[in-house]
Amino acid sequence: MILVNNPGNWGKIYSPLKHATWHGCTPTDLVFPFFLFIVGVSIAYALDRNKHLPETHKATLLRIVRRGLTLFALGMFLALFPKFEVDTVRIPGVLQRIGVVFIIAAILFLKTSRRTQIWTTIVLLVGYWALMMFAPVPGIGMANLEPATNLAAWLDNTLLSGHLWKQSKVWDPEGILSTLPAVATALTGVLVGQWLKKPSVEAGEKIAWLMVWGVICVCLGLIWDLHFPINKSLWTSSYVLYTSGLAMLGLGLCYWLIDVKGYHRFTTPFLVYGVNAITVFFLSGLIPRIMGMIKVDTAKGEVDSKTWLYESFYTPLFSPINASLAWALTWIAFWMLILWVMYKKNIIIKV
C-alpha cells in the first residue's frame, strides 16, 4: 500500500496499482483483505494460551480493546493532520477498520469455540448479502448496489454525514455496515490459524488442506460474484470468499517454501517491513502531509516540497507514468532503509 498510496502523479498510475472503479478486483484490492486475514491468523497464535486460561481473560480483553482503540486513534490522527478540522474529519478509515475488526475477531476467538466462529462467519456473509440485496433503502426504494444509493451508503450518510470519504461525500469504502463482512475476513484467518497450530497434523496435510480450501473459497467467491459482485468498496461477501481463498493459497505457498523447504533468504525484506507494518503504514501517510506543509520558491511560484522534488528529479528523467512509479518505488526504498536499520537494532514498535 505504500507503493499504491504514494505515486508521483495520481493521474498517471499503472492499472494494477489502482483500485477497481467499483465492481471487480485488482491486485491492489487484495492488500487490505490479505492484511485482515493475517491479523486473524496472528490472533490464533498470540491469544491461544490466554484462551485456555480463563483467569487471564479480563486482562486479555483489556489489552485487546486498548490495542484496537490505539489503532483507531492513529487512523483518526492521520485523518485530522495537519488541519485538525474536527467538524469535517473522516471518521472511517483503514486503521480504524483494522482496530474495530481486531477487537471483534479477537474477542470472538477468546470467548467462543471454533464451531461458533465458523457459524458467525457464515451468518455475517449471508446476512450481509441478504441486507444488501433484499432490504429496501429508506428514502430511495429497492435494494441496489449503486455507489451512493445502496443500504451501506445510506447508513454511512445517515450516521456519519459530513464525516465520510471526501471523494464520495455520501458513502465510505470503510463504512459501518461493510465492516461486518470485514470481520468475516479476519475470522477466516482465525480459523486458518487454529488449523495451522494443530500439533497432531503433519505440515504436508496442513498445506494440502490450505490449498484445497483456498481453491474452494475462490470458486465460491466467483460463483457468488454472478449474483453479488466482488466489490472492495462494499466488501461484498463474494469479495470476502475470493480474497480469503487467495490469501489461503498464498499462505500455503509461503508455508511450503519457507517452513518446509527452508528457503529463507528471500524473506528478509518482507520480514523487515512486516515486523513494523503498522509503524511504516502510519509514517508513510504522515510524512507526505508534512512535506505538503513545507513550501519551496520556484520560477513558477511557491510549491510544496513533494512537488518540487518530483518535478525536479523525476519528471525530467522518465515518461509521466514511469516517473510516477519511480517516485513510489523511491518511497519503498526509503522506508526499507529505515526499517532495515530498525530491524538490525531489534527496534520493533508495537501498537
What distinguishing features does this structure have?
14 helices; DUF5009 domain-containing protein; mainly alpha; 351 residues; 2 domains; transmembrane; membrane; transmembrane helix
Q: Please give the largest β-sheet.
A: 2 strands, antiparallel
Helical residue percent band: 55-70%
- pLDDT below 50 for ≥5 consecutive residues: which ranges? none
Shape, principal axes of CA atoms: globular
Describe the structure.
With 351 residues, this protein is mainly alpha-helical. The protein has two domains: 246 residues, no CATH class; 88 residues, no CATH class. 62% of the residues lie in helices and 2% in strands. It has 14 helices and two strands, in the order ααααααααααααββαα. The chain has a two-stranded antiparallel ribbon with strand order 1-2. Strand 1 and strand 2 form a beta hairpin. Helix 4 packs antiparallel against helix 5. The longest helix has 25 residues.
